[in-house]
Amino acid sequence: MHNIELFRQLVTAQDDQITTTSRKIAELFGKRHSNxxxxxxxLDQDREFTKLNFEFSYEINDLANGKPERVCSxxxxxxxxxxxxxxxxxxxxxxxxxxxAFNWMADMLRQRADIDFMMGDFSRRESASIGNGSFHGRGLxxxxxxKYALASxxxxxxxxxxxxxxxxxxxGDE
Length: 174
Prior knowledge:
With about 170 residues, the chain is α+β, with helices and mostly antiparallel strands. Helix content is about 70%, strand content about 15%. It contains seven helices and four strands. The protein has helices at about 5-10, 20-30, 35-40, 45-55, 75-85, 90-135, 135-174; strands at about 10-15, 15-20, 55-60, 65-75. A four-stranded antiparallel beta sheet has the order 1-2-4-3.
């Protein structure tokens, strides 16, 4: 399963926060839901972390003849805390997918930072060229020469930015 699809199945957006449930964790890792709940109950962490990242509720379970079943909704941090403690093949696949997704996003941010730097440098030189061109006649002649070179450079920066955007979109479609 592709990394992005794995995370799409696992998480949902709820109240401007990305969350998942103990039921989804159990399904993904091939564990019994009761075992996931027990793992959450047995976590050794401070109260503040628990309060911020785990919220228990009850849902009606059709498989249990309508009997309410305890379920835990958790944030990304809560999910990572619990999932990183799991072992086995599915847990290893999840951990690798999580690491790969994190590294990929870091690469995208670095590429974006490089492009932002190039765009800032370009803007500074473009402004100076425009300023010199309007200041005197010789500057106007120089501006005409610089204008074409700067336009080509701008197109190259835009192409790099577009490549990063396409990579992000392609990765999201995987």
